[in-house]
Amino acid sequence: MKNKKPIIISIITCITTIALFFSYKSILRWQVEKRVSGVQFKDISLNTSGITLHSVYVDKGWLKGSLDSLTSDFQGEHILIEGGNVSVNLDERATKESDNTTKKKRDIQFQDLQVSVTYKKYNATLQEVRSSGSNICFAKAKVENTNIAVTDGCFNKDTKIASIEKAELDKVEVKGVQLTDLTAHHIEINTKEKTAKVDELKSQLIFENQTFHIEANKLQGYKNSETISAESVKVLHPWLDSDWITLEKIKVQQADKIKLSVKSSNVEVDTTTLSISGSESCSTWVDSLPSSLKTIPLNQVQLNGKTSFSITLRPKPEFNLKSDCKATCSTFPNLRKPFKYTAYTSKRDVFERESGRGTKEWVSIDMMGAMPIAAPAMEDPGFLRHRGFITQAFANSLTSNLKEGRFFRGGSTITMQLVKNIFLTREKTLGRKVQEFFLAQAVESCYSKDDIIELYLNVVEFGPNKYGVAAGAQHWFKKSPMDLSPVEAFWLASILPRPNKTAPPTKESLNSIESLLKKLAFNKSIPDFIIEMMDQEEDIEELDNN
User: Fold this and answer.
1) HSE (side-chain half, CA atoms, 13 Å) at 325
2) What are phi and psi of 168, to 5 degrees?
């Protein structure tokens, strides 16, 4: 019997071992299901470092899904999930976590997951989700409610910082402004500090039926102060300029009114009335202009004084402007001596023309006959009273441009036309109008009205390749400016808006000018001696006929 006892023990051990071998999976399943609720699986495998569950289904209430495999150490502290689809409801998770104060901390890593996330009103789908240490990353993501598509993103659980390589948004509307085709690159969001950084952002901005192309660089957003800043913002719109304009050091702060700063200048935007207003020194406004607009001499002249403005679009367009800019004349070009400026041929080719006192075609004001009176009367009736600009003319232009949906009317004075001809291009843009506005005030503070009209009539175009009043008078009447009759002088002044599209003077057109002169004289818009000169010419003509 004693000899049989070891044999019996061996048989029992063998049977037990065999039983355990064939039933260990059932035992392990029982242990797993006992310790971890809401987890089911088709198969289980065992190795020296832990266990692996295969074809796993998880239902934790706030987290549901099917996993290809789940590997854990025996203590359940380190878990690796590979492959599968998971749905996460963060709203439900917040409720569960608030009731569970003894939650065990685990190191959970995963790779190649497809995850759907619900948070408040947003639903997001993430592809190829993976983890590495404290980082949770994904290849692609899409937020359905907002049509946001994201590429290559990561979130660090320790630092609470999310980094995204690229984000795209089809359309979003903010306070009546629509953003479309929005693309952002290299994004960093600090969820703890509630800040965001974007290296580059591109979008189309639609406002009042106008589309602006926007490119912003080095953006930073601060949730606590409701502030967004950018190192630079590029804008493209034909109203502004023919090319991109670049605004530097931008800051936008949300309050009762939106506060916008560009460099050291500040404006306020009221989204209810769609109004914008600001008040700064003239030099501050000029310093804040895009570099493409700060051309010679605007980038050299020193301006004193202050400019204040307000533009309102609703319920109806309104425009207010006050400005008393004055230049330090020693910083402004000397136009009392010969100078060169850009002119254009009839085919719009550019060439350089010389003008100024002492040049070949220069005509002094006392040799221009009636032209110094005719030009202001026809082009700028308020010439002797304004300081380079007329606020009402700007207001009328704003209304007309908004109605037409294009920038075609600028409200220029003779002084503004003078600086355009000498210093600027012929583009009809808001950017050029701003240049004219400041340069015209500089001219008005350094030159008399006689100087200005003399300069203007010597540089302006009176016909195809006919620059200056001498060339104009000779081209149309075969006379010098001094020999022009009042009617001829006023006819010559009347063609200035479109000198290259004017037909030669006819008896009918000259009679119309004569009728106009009588009306102007009746209204005291021109001196009486103009009519007296006309009467004298008629008497001389009668004598010649007799």
Assistant:
1) 30
2) -130, 140
